[in-house]
UniProtKB/TrEMBL annotation:
Residues 41-208 form the LUD domain. This is L-lactate dehydrogenase complex protein LldG. Signal peptide: none annotated. It comes from the Bacteria.
Amino acid sequence: MSSKNLILRRIREALGDDPAQPDIPRDYRRGPAPADLDLLVERLVDYKAIVHRVSDISDAIRRIVGNGKVVLPPGVPVEWLPAEWLPAERSPAEGSPARFVRDDGLTPAEIAAADAVITAAAVAVAETGTIVLDAGEDQGRRILSLLPDLHICVLRPGQVVASVPEAVARLTPGRPLTWISGPSATSDIELNRVEGVHGPRNLHIVLVEEAAARS
């Protein structure tokens, strides 16, 4: 018998057939503190993300997007879009300053051709400067947040938690999760930083101020 197996056998014998499972305390906070929001912004800026603290989502998107072509997950609300980009029937308009395309099964090439993607988030972690997407209707498939060069993520204060355990407690087990800490970047052995290798080179976080978040 190997030393490893001998050690494991002794552990099993010491524990018995049905070792008691200790209760794990999960006394996490259930809402953001003002310091959490400030810390999140600080971490995001450290990672070279651009943070917009706004009360008007559509105005922020207008300024960020410019004249680019944008892809949207199915559940992103049209209320986030500038009114002049939508016709009376409130659907994306041809020939408008920015052309919005809903992801209804777009090919990877079609997604990559977009200049930007707009998503929501499931939760954000202040301590690590991380936003988490769980493929909800307003976040879409993982590929949407990987191929376009610009990712715009709309985030509300109530989605911000202090720590990773708090974030995990809010997430639904089994859903596909994408954890994003700043724009995509990597470094070679000489520490030369290259951005955009594994995802968007540019990450803009639209952090909705409290008054607008309640509306």
